[in-house]
Design goal:
- The protein has helices at residues 17-65, 115-118, 202-205, and strands at residues 7-10, 13-16, 76-78, 84-87, 94-96, 130-132, 139-141, 172-174, 185-187.
- The chain is an alpha+beta fold.
- The strands form 4 sheets. A 3-stranded antiparallel beta sheet has the order 3-4-5, with no helix packed on it. A two-stranded antiparallel ribbon has the order 1-2.
- The radius of gyration is 43 Å and the shape is rod-shaped.
- The protein has a domain at 74-147.
- Keywords: Disulfide bond, Integrin, Membrane, Transmembrane, Transmembrane helix.
Length: 209
């Protein structure tokens, strides 16, 4: 026996109730999907707005109070000649102090010639790279101290209370020099050259090259 779907007639127009119910279900499913999508989009939008708010707050704080200063890089090192030096970014190359701000890029990245380091000498240099002479107006690079030469002009970098220099090395002759450029020793290369370099003439009679 064949079943027929119930039909309703209004004003001479028949309606299939089964078809109508199916269409209503489809519309409900579409509506649910749309509502789900809307909620998901709304959540994403809220999260994005919150993230933007946090970023904006951080930027506002930085502008208002200023960014924290970067942590200074420790560049202290000791050269192969046992002198105070400047450590390059490669953390291997150690330059003698006198090679800093000499207008020659010794470090690969040029950090030994940075403007912030060299534009106001010696104020911008780390204290361990310089030596203040007895007259504080004058200064020399730290590796020039105790090198036998009168770099300060008053020998305060070679003798006196500001330094503790070792005795003259084997390549030097200890005496009281007569020339301004030396303080407590002269290079042995100057011995017996028929020129007086020591006040007692020992460079010509006692010193051997």
């Amino acid at each position: 026996m064949n079943r027929t779907h119930p039909q309703r007639s209004f004003g001479g127009i028949s309606f299939d109730s089964t078809k109508s119910s199916s269409e209503e279900r489809d519309r409900c499913q579409e509506c649910s999907a749309c509502l789900s999508c809307t909620r998901r989009c709304l959540c994403i939008s809220i999260i994005a707005l919150l993230a933007l708010g946090v970023v904006g707050a951080v930027i506002g704080f930085a502008v208002t109070f200023g960014l924290p200063p970067p942590t200074p890089v420790n560049r202290f090192c000791v050269t192969s000649g046992n002198q105070t030096g400047f450590l390059c970014d490669d953390r291997v190359t150690c330059l003698p102090a006198s090679q800093i701000c000499n207008r020659i890029r010794e470090c690969v990245n040029g950090e030994d010639e940075q403007e912030k380091l060299c534009n106001d000498l010696p104020s911008n240099l780390p204290g361990y790279l310089i030596f203040r002479c007895s007259n504080p107006v004058y200064w020399i690079y730290a590796d020039k101290k105790c090198n036998g030469a009168n770099d300060c002009g008053d020998c305060s970098d070679e003798k006196g209370t500001l330094v503790s220099c070792p005795p003259c090395g084997t390549q030097w002759w200890s005496c009281t020099p007569v020339f301004f450029e030396y303080c407590t020793c002269i290079p042995r290369a100057l011995c017996r050259d028929r020129i007086q370099h020591c006040s007692d003439w020992s460079d010509e009679y006692a010193c051997n090259r």
